Amino acid sequence: MEGILASRAALIFLVANLAISIYAFSNENFLRWGLLNTRAVLKQQEYHRILVSGFLHADPMHLFFNMITLFFFGPTVESIMGSQGFFLVYLGALVGGNLFALWRNRNDGNYSALGASGAISGILFTFCLFAPFAMILVLVVPVPAILYAFLFVAVSIYGMGRANNVIAHDAHLGGAVIGLIIAILVQPSLLPHFLQQLGGILG
Question: 32 Cβ partners below 8 Å, 6+ apart?
């Protein structure tokens, strides 16, 4: 608890997600107004959806899994990047992931998505850049962060190729890649640090 309370940027995003999502659970008009939808954004130029949709969630469980991930990994990433750097990675991954999803689904006017998963993916992958061999619990099974990252990319690419998939794998993947790029641009030392750790393991 002390970690998140001491992390200004991570705490702001956590509280914003909770407040906006909980409000939207009981206000369908607000949810529809903020939902990421290709027709609304690309045809009707409702660009606010690119940002607002990243603070909306489908249900309490969806919100819980994203926020518990932010709770555990956000403070570490913010301690590495600083609050300003964290803001850039989080918002860049959120917007970048949604833009990638819009581009991927530009010919499907019915495509809709919501959730902080693109931003959370950017934070997770930034964590992997800093600590690639830290253990992450995936369905109560501990795996190295770098293995989780590779599995995440593989599942996202597979999911992107499936029709009628309700999970926004393209936003996940886009957010992860954009988050990594921004993290390296903000703090270039992260890349040699990652390569050094990788080289140490590989010998």
Answer: none
CATH architecture of the domain covering 2-202: Up-down Bundle (1.20)
Phi-psi region of 144 (alpha: psi -120 to 50; beta: other; left: phi over 0): beta
Spatial separation of the C-alpha atoms in residues 113 and 93, rounded to whole Å: 15
| Phi, psi values for residue 11, rounded to 5° | -65, -40
| Residues assigned a catalytic role | 117, 172
Read off the amino acid at residue 69.
T
Residue 132, pLDDT score:
86
In this predicted structure, what is the pLDDT of residue 86?
96
CA distance 155 to 147: 12
The 10s digit of each residue's pLDDT in 14-54 is: 999 999 999 999 999 999 999 999 999 999 999 999 999 99
DSSP one-letter string for 56-89: --SSHHHHHHHHHHHHHHHHHHHHHHHHHHHHHH
